[in-house]
Design goal:
mainly alpha, Chitinase A, domain 3, 2 domains, three-stranded antiparallel sheet, two-stranded antiparallel sheet, 15 helices
């Protein structure tokens, strides 16, 4: 289904929806006959139909830069308003030069997406046949029905969610879908026939992403009594602090083995930060535990859940650990994820191809002042976040 609830940020709604190869590619194949063989991205006839830059009768400025695109316009606030918060932290903590280097490509991509969406829709509208409108209406009805079903058929709640994503209401959303479907249909016809995804393609992709996508990290969960000699308040006058701490730890281990409640002992005797919670740590990756607690990760490898280890001595601590859970690192084998890998490769190729077509159509339309418009938006986002 078309994603409609990202993070209340127009940046995500437009950029992802406009450029992501999702179900609309399948819809588009119903609207136009696909390419069976490679053909030029844009024919001379199509280029001739391309809207030319508007140089007269431009709309008045609305407190900022206005970019003319084939009779339509993009206001600077359409770019800056949805991105203002997205880049706020970077703008506050970086020089303008650094901000431009890091944020510039993303803002440029957003502007190009807005331009290409206008041009693609205009181009597709000119080249579509008379039967397309009815097919698009049917596809829009299908998508809106799916969205409504997500809210249990509650029309008002669904519309409220649409407004949070920047739409004015159902009609605005439907118009957005119509333009999206028609534009992506046109993009699909301009894409060359897809190359087959080979076994080597999938295996190489798997090796590149498996650590990020297909590895379940090792985890341990435990309770800990952390005795720090320097923090003891009751000291045996005949012993040093270290000796007192060692004796306390031995006594606690004996009590635990005899059935005493570990959590209650931790609350009473532990001087560590989790004492109030019965010494319970949140599940953690063994390799992420910092010294001096990393000794517990090594100890856990020799234990099974439910077992007690200790006293475990370090320079400033004496630990008693109860292992609750232990999960070894696992990697999903290639054979189990091969179909998903293939889908990912196809989706990425389509996205790259769609991006390329979008950029070509923008370049060939020769829209005036694009660079200046992007620079203006960059500067406005930066300066507004610095005040």
């Amino acid at each position: 289904m078309i994603e409609s609830r990202f993070s209340n940020c127009r940046f995500y709604k437009e950029l992802i929806n406009m450029r992501k190869s999702i179900a609309l590619f399948a819809v588009s194949l119903l609207l136009f006959t696909g390419c069976k063989k490679e053909e030029p991205r844009l024919t001379d006839a199509e280029i001739a139909l391309m809207p030319q830059p508007q140089t007269t009768n431009l709309p008045p400025a609305t407190g900022g830069f206005v970019l003319s695109v084939g009779g339509d316009t993009i206001r600077s606030d359409e770019i800056t308003d949805p991105l203002m918060g997205y880049f706020a932290e970077l703008a506050r903590n970086a020089s303008y030069s650094t901000f431009k280097t890091q944020a510039g490509p993303q803002i440029e991509s957003f502007v190009v997406s807005k331009i290409s969406n206008i041009l693609l829709y205009q181009q597709a509208k000119k080249l579509s046949d008379e039967n397309v409108e009815a097919q698009i209406d049917q596809a829009v009805d299908t998508e809106t029905t799916k969205l409504l079903a997500d809210f249990g058929g509650d029309y008002a709640k669904a519309e409220e969610a649409l407004k949070k994503d920047g739409f004015t209401g159902w009609q605005d959303y439907k118009e957005f879908l119509k333009k999206m479907i028609l534009s992506q249909s046109y993009v699909t016809t301009k894409m060359s026939q897809e190359k087959p995804v080979t076994y080597d393609d999938m295996l190489n992709y798997y090796n590149e992403v498996k650590d990020k996508l297909y590895v379940t990290q090792a985890r341990i969960s435990f309770q800990l009594i952390d005795i720090q000699p320097a923090k003891l308040t009751s000291i045996d006058p005949n012993k040093t602090r270290e000796q007192t701490a060692e004796q306390l730890a031995e006594n606690l281990v004996t009590s635990i083995k005899e059935g005493a409640d570990f959590a209650e002992l931790a609350k009473k005797h532990s001087t560590g930060p989790m004492a109030a919670f019965g010494g319970l740590w949140k599940p953690v990756r063994p390799d992420s535990i910092a010294p001096p607690f990393d000794i517990l990760a090594n100890q856990s490898q020799k234990m099974e859940p439910g077992q007690i280890a200790g006293p475990i001595k370090t320079e400033e601590h004496i630990f008693i650990m109860k292992l609750l859970e232990k999960q070894a690192e696992t990697v999903q084998p290639f054979e189990n994820v091969q179909p998903e890998i293939k889908r990912r490769i196809i989706a990425e190729r389509r996205l790259q191809a769609a991006d390329q077509v979008s950029r070509e159509i923008v370049q060939q339309a020769a829209i005036a002042n694009v660079d200046e418009f992007i620079d203006f938006c960059l500067r406005k986002i930066y300066e507004n976040n610095r005040t």
